[in-house]
Amino acid sequence: MHALILNGLEQPLQLSETATPQPAPGEVQVHLRAAALNHRDVWIQKGQYAGVKFPIILGSDGAGIISAVGAGVDAQLLGREVLINPGQQWGNNPAAQGRSFTILGLPHNGTFAEYVCVSAASVHPKPTHLSFEQAAALPLGGVTAYRALFTRAGLQAGERVLINGVGGGVALLALQMAVAAGARVWVTSSSAEKIAKAVALGAEGGISYTAEKWPAQLTQQAGGAFDVLVDSAAGPGFNHLLDAAAPGGRLVFYGGTHGAIPQVPPAKIFWKQLSILGSTMGTEADFAQMVALVEHHRIVPAIDEILSLAEGEQALRRMDQGLQFGKIVLQIPG
């Protein structure tokens, strides 16, 4: 098969021929039709991710058709159109992932290839209203957004939501899911264009996080402070989110791209009775419920650009530069 292979630290992805994986007992082989990028792929290429090994086929997101099944797997699955849950072996505790938890694309070969083998429990029916490219844009970002909003923050209809740093796949899916659930959503970004695009997807407004005293301005714009705040940056801006939170608010974050959180005045948290919540990926139940939500509300993930598998290195560079609005997708020949 053809696959994009990363052979070393800071090396470009190489489109090469490699052995086609065969399903072990309990596994299915998926003939991939599309794969999507995540920042994780860039971090692995740069050596900024634990457990890096080479050679490796990157890619956590993928959608395709089941083309073979291993021993013990129902043969009726053959030919099914599916998307893949990239979270493997979550464990028995729904509150947090276990020590055996891994994400597709490292340490095991991922979806930047014509074929991949995964546990039969990891594949879910592709929502009927989505193309393969749209479905491939959903898994990692979708389950991360769903768990952050609903499992961790307990979002309810009518609540005000603030999504900090809109533009990436998780943030946009969180926006779309929150709107579908009946919440009122505002966003921040350093880009006026990204804020305008977020409004087109259902946000009620937004503000640049570079603006002076932006929490007060956005709170006035929204008619009140925010019940749920979603963040992936952390860093110095974290204090601003505490200022924007309503009493009893829940601040959930799933990343820390801006680094460590500086000293926080404790009264900002205890006097407002805030909840600070961490979230990572999601359980099999989270994933199934996310797919059901997307199907029911016919949510279509925002796609920035669709490129060919051979353009994988170009796609990584676009993501590294932070130019995208939505997911960058690789189309894989059928």
UniProtKB/TrEMBL annotation:
SUPFAM superfamilies xrefs: GroES-like (SSF50129), NAD(P)-binding Rossmann-fold domains (SSF51735)
Recorded superkingdom: Bacteria
Molecular function per GO: oxidoreductase activity
Every Enoyl reductase (ER) domain range: 8-330
PANTHER family associated with the record: DEHYDROGENASE, PUTATIVE (AFU_ORTHOLOGUE AFUA_2G13270)-RELATED, PTHR45033
The name this protein goes by in its record: Zinc-binding dehydrogenase
Organism the protein comes from: Hymenobacter lutimineralis
